[in-house]
Design a protein that fits this description.
2 copies of one chain form a homodimer.
Chain A lengths: L3 H8 L3 H16 L5 E2 L11 H13 L2 H4 L9 H15 L8 E4 L1 H13 L5 E6 L4 H8 L3 E6 L9 H7 L4 E7 L11 H17 L5 E6 L22 E6 L12 E5 L6 H15 L6 H10 L7 H16 L12 E5 L5 H9 L3 E2 L1 E2 L8 E5 L4 H19 L2
Parallel strand pairs in A: 1-10, 3-4, 3-5, 5-6, 6-7
Antiparallel strand pairs in A: 2-8, 7-8, 9-12, 11-12
Helix pairs in contact in A: 3-11, 5-11, 6-7, 6-10, 12-14
Chain lengths: 397, 397
């Protein structure tokens, strides 16, 4: 018998992926323009023009042996230096190149950090709703994911619930803001209170608790008055997992980084653990061409005005139709209250109207569905009558 | 305390890497042309011209949203189909696209396969000399690496030694041919005998034993009469881990694949385990741009005539100077008998002549050093007097 845990993981597709595959089949049956697929978080706007210009320049101007060679496992020094300088300028930190570790995207960042930190059966607390793969990653690293509910109605952090979950096995708290699937940005006051809590319990249990921030959506914030707090400015034991997948619309190219705060006293040990975990997991180095790319376009983003338009249009229409929606500050998801208790049943019902929306159950949050609005605006226009009809079908009962 | 096993792995650099770093420092001290660095296996010839042509064409001709989007976790279907067809044509197999799983290179292929197969404390047998990271990968996957010596003097497989190592915990045998560091290609007769052995013991212990072939050096074979046996043609429970790092000189870009033989009856389970392990390790998908690249240049290789020239020049000169060398059929390494019992001491002594060669101890094979000849031919010419002087320094004793 081979490893049955991994066999099961390989056989059991995520329900997001199931719905996406259903959508492909359904489109083939009735036509692509008749199915309203809000299932998947794949950026719908192209990479900024600078990306292709830079890629072509790098290929033309760099010696091919150097360009495609292994970098150090942490990533090319000049790439890390450029990104550290940019982070420092933007957030007032004092990171050096050696605080950064380049990775094959956010998932890699998370598995590397979890493997670096966790001993057997230690716990990572996260806040529901949360990205379902967190559980898979934590369990593979030998630990456990403990999900606590967010604040009722707002999806902000609920500090009391987090405190109640902390114990002597707690190794880290993992947050994701802007949040997938709620779109909520956690506010600075709560981050401050969370930091105090983690300091208190690190001391109480004589066991350092780390704060991990999963930040693929950092640049996808639509209103000028919203800022996403940088956790390193609030807590010494901070680790940021960043990815260019969404900001540069490069999800398939797998490029991101881990930044470890140099304010923690055991910095050297944590960074070494990250290097060791990256090595044991088989990452070797992040793709060199894309390391060189982000060195050139680190401050660019795709045209996110389309996502803002989509958010505003959907939020306003769905609210009009009687849906309950927390207005998202960022990312490209709406988390909408299902019109019946069982969100899976609601998601099934929506299919009758050719609407593909993911039940929140997989995100650890029952009674809601996720709408991915990284789609063409005209699909939203065509989908609105279906959303309206779906709402009306519940009123008729 | 964070995970100390990974901290230790992160702190303890491989001795290859140590020597490489020493070389960089030494070059800064006395000049780059005065240090003869044979420490590292980084291709010295550029990617074939078709690679950059194809990269630019792909970037110019493909819709950027599609080009950089997530592929399915297994890899883009059309890429897998193209590669499966090519393998079938070349080796007479009957693989479908769904036998292939695209990866971020050979290390990723190996960690994914090991995590898919291994239950706690199960064993993978490999043949010394072997690539040192095999042990790191196997242990992270919860298993153990069991190294058996190759045949005395030839570095070919020693079937008796392999048989003696097989027990009820044996999950796989891992071979690497052409071999890093010996350069030896395992012959077809021995592969045939190995297959018989694995069939016998799979049956005896009612526990399937897999044959894994790590093949980054498959295309680096220098003589027309040498063929590298394709294990799927000898054994049903075969898994091939392939990488384009060396054949296309793209080690930093991380692109390769796993091919699972569809002749094994539990194929579906093994492939699912691979999908599950890739997911749990955080790989998501192999870099899309490089997937599209290998779809176009799958049958190209870098100009390996330089490696052949280097092998011939070094082999003939070192033999003349009195060194004992098994003539390598492929890869870009010479495995040379040290001129004293302790290969680490010999490697230290070589430094006095500015020669950087890696002690074989890390490859599980004492008494030898590895010479990586993926270097500029003129460095070899400049290094030859140093090799001669090193040999003479031992004769004087």
């Amino acid at each position: 018998m081979i490893n049955q845990k991994n066999v099961e993981l390989g056989r059991r597709r995520s329900s997001i992926r199931e719905l996406f595959e259903y959508g492909k089949k359904r489109k083939a049956e009735i036509g692509g323009d008749k199915v309203f697929d809000f299932s998947i978080g794949n950026p719908s706007v192209p990479a900024p023009a600078e990306v292709h210009t830079a890629l072509k320049e790098i290929i033309e101007q760099t010696d091919p042996v150097a360009l495609h060679s292994y970098t150090s496992a942490q990533g090319d020094f000049s790439v890390r230096k450029t990104l550290a300088d940019y982070i420092n300028k933007r957030f007032g930190t004092s990171l050096t190149a050696d605080c950064l570790y380049m990775t094959c995207g956010a998932a890699a960042s998370l598995t590397i950090v979890m493997n670096a930190l966790l001993n057997k059966d230690e716990e990572i607390i996260t806040v529901a709703p949360y990205f379902p793969e967190y559980k898979v990653f934590a369990e593979h690293a030998g630990g456990r994911l403990v999900a606590v509910d967010s604040a009722d109605g707002t999806f902000q952090l609920d500090l009391n619930r987090i405190e109640a979950a902390i114990n002597c096995r707690t190794k880290a708290v993992l947050i994701n803001s802007p949040n997938n699937p709620s779109g909520v940005v956690y506010n600075a006051d709560d981050i401050k209170r969370l930091a105090k809590l983690l300091e208190k319990y690190s001391h109480k249990f004589s066991n350092a608790i780390y704060l991990i921030s999963d930040e693929p959506y950092r640049e996808l914030v639509f209103d000028k008055d919203i800022t996403v707090p940088y956790i390193m400015n609030y807590y010494a034991r901070s680790i940021v997992c960043y990815s260019y997948s969404k900001s540069l619309s490069l999800p398939g190219e797998r490029i991101g980084y881990i930044a470890v705060s140099n304010k923690m006293k055991e910095f050297e040990e944590v960074y070494a653990g990250i290097c060791g975990a990256g090595r044991a997991l088989g990452f070797v180095c992040a793709p060199n061409l894309f390391q060189q790319l982000v060195k050139r376009v680190y401050d660019k983003t795709s045209d996110i005005s389309i996502y803002k338009h989509n958010r505003d249009r959907l939020y306003s229409a769905l609210t009009d139709y009687g849906y309950t929606v927390v207005r998202p500050d960022g990312a490209f998801y709406l988390f909408v209250k299902a019109l019946e208790e069982d969100a899976r049943a609601f998601s099934e019902k929506a299919k009758q109207f050719e609407l593909l929306v993911v039940a929140g159950d997989d995100f650890g949050c029952k009674g809601y569905v996720r709408i991915s609005y990284c789609v063409a605006p005209d699909m939203i226009e065509r989908a609105l009558p279906a959303f309206k009809a779906l709402a009306e079908s519940y009123k008729q009962k």
